[in-house]
UniProtKB/TrEMBL annotation:
Transmembrane segments: none annotated. GO terms for biological process: isoleucine biosynthetic process; L-leucine biosynthetic process; L-valine biosynthetic process. Its EC number is 2.6.1.42. Pathway: Amino-acid biosynthesis; L-valine biosynthesis; L-valine from pyruvate: step 4/4; Amino-acid biosynthesis; L-isoleucine biosynthesis; L-isoleucine from 2-oxobutanoate: step 4/4; Amino-acid biosynthesis; L-leucine biosynthesis; L-leucine from 3-methyl-2-oxobutanoate: step 4/4. It catalyses: L-isoleucine + 2-oxoglutarate = (S)-3-methyl-2-oxopentanoate + L-glutamate; L-valine + 2-oxoglutarate = 3-methyl-2-oxobutanoate + L-glutamate; L-leucine + 2-oxoglutarate = 4-methyl-2-oxopentanoate + L-glutamate. Keywords: Amino-acid biosynthesis, Aminotransferase, Branched-chain amino acid biosynthesis, Pyridoxal phosphate, Transferase. It comes from Salipaludibacillus neizhouensis. This is Branched-chain-amino-acid aminotransferase. Pfam families: Aminotran_4 (PF01063). It is an enzyme of class 2 (transferase). Belongs to the class-IV pyridoxal-phosphate-dependent aminotransferase family. The keyword Transferase applies.
Length: 357
């Protein structure tokens, strides 16, 4: 990093803030964004906060051809004293560097970027909506910008952070969804890019997602790409099951994304003296538990929804209704506690939240 001094170029044309009751996910952006450049000679340089605006890139820019990019997703919340809280942002920057490593993108300086992020959030404070369940979604991302059609890592990159006020994931209260187990397509395979947050992993899932949506299901459940037996994730979330009193989540491998929410749930449950068993879990085992009447709860876990209860699982031609399509007790407690900590409503014994001045 040759240039660490952040330059702030304030936007003279501030937009009017949106109606907090009608916020869609990721459709609307704040007045400013953060950008920083990289070249082989200079390293990361020219960190700046500038008005949010279209960017100009050559059509030959490598991002358009071979998909060399990474991203992150986290949220800023407002607490009851109007203070601004981030939830475990250090974990996101660490993961961004792990994704960088997988995609041959040069690492960022996590400490400096944390400081830039805080300055950006501080400048855009007024964009953090106040209403219950709302937040400011933060999207850091890096793209390869060198104009070249060579199939090789780019020599130039741009790092952006853009911000979007988002509404409550559950405007009508937390509710269980129907999930279809995907038998044909795979999200990620052993040795692939599944542990990295990189664009292509998500477009790889669109076919299956569209098919499931057409059948009336909210999302797909992904199985491992080798044997098509073991459960990996649900949509873009990690997944947990409660079977016969035990909480089980697929053990991390190199095709599962290491969620911050997943990690936090495991730590939170340990604090409640509930051990989470991280191991391989097959769809067959889940089905047998369902038949035996011991499949008590299932839920997805990720930043967007925090916790998303699964009310129905479709596997081959079987429909498994979980907990009478009601949100389970454990799922509910986790949701209330995690969102409570994130919004400063309840104490944070883990020191997960970071205040932005
Ligand atoms: C981002 C993401 C998750 C959840 O991670 P969080 O850090 O909890 O938001 C899970 N699976 C996939 C594929 C993801 O992209």
């Amino acid at each position: 990093m040759t240039e660490a001094k952040l330059v702030i170029n304030e936007n003279p044309n501030k937009k009017t803030k949106p109606d907090p009751d009608n916020l869609k996910f990721g459709k609307l952006f704040t007045d400013h964004m953060f950008t920083m450049e990289y070249s082989r000679e200079k390293g990361w340089f020219q960190p700046q906060i500038v008005p949010y605006a279209p960017v100009s890139l050559e059509p030959a820019s490598m991002i358009f051809h071979y998909g060399q990019s990474v991203f992150e997703g986290l949220k800023a919340y407002r607490d009851e004293n109007n203070d601004v809280l981030l939830f475990r942002p250090d974990e996101n920057l660490k993961r961004l560097n792990r994704s960088n490593g997988r995609l041959s993108i040069p690492p960022i300086n996590e400490e400096l970027v944390m400081d830039y992020l805080k300055q950006l959030i501080s400048l855009e404070k007024d964009w953090i909506p106040q209403a219950e369940g709302t937040s400011l979604y933060i999207r850091p991302f890096i793209i390869a910008t060198e104009p070249s059609l060579s199939v090789a890592p780019s020599n130039n990159y741009t790092f952006f952070i853009i911000l979007s006020p988002v509404g409550s994931y559950y405007p009508e209260g937390i509710h269980p969804v129907s999930i279809m187990v995907e038998e044909h397509f795979t999200r990620a395979v052993r040795g692939g890019m599944g542990t990295a947050k990189t664009g292509g992993n998500y477009s790889a899932g669109y076919n299956a997602q569209e098919y499931a949506a057409n059948q009336g299901h909210a999302q797909v459940m992904w199985l491992d790409g080798v044997e098509k037996k073991y459960i990996e994730e649900v949509g873009s979330m990690n997944v947990f099951f409660k079977i016969d009193g035990q909480v089980i989540t697929p053990e991390l491998n190199d095709s599962i994304l290491q969620g911050v929410t997943r990690k936090s749930i495991i730590q939170l449950l340990a604090d409640w003296d509930i051990q989470v068993i991280e191991r391989k879990i097959s769809m067959k085992e889940v089905y047998q538990a369902y038949e035996a009447g011991t499949l008590e709860e299932a839920f997805g876990a990720g930043t967007a929804a925090v916790v998303s209860p699964i009310g129905e699982l479709i596997w081959k031609d079987e429909s498994m209704i979980i907990n009478g399509r009601q949100t389970g007790e454990l799922t509910k407690s986790l949701y209330t506690t995690l969102t409570g900590i994130q919004t400063g409503k309840i104490p944070d014994p883990f020191e997960w939240t970071v205040q932005v001045k």
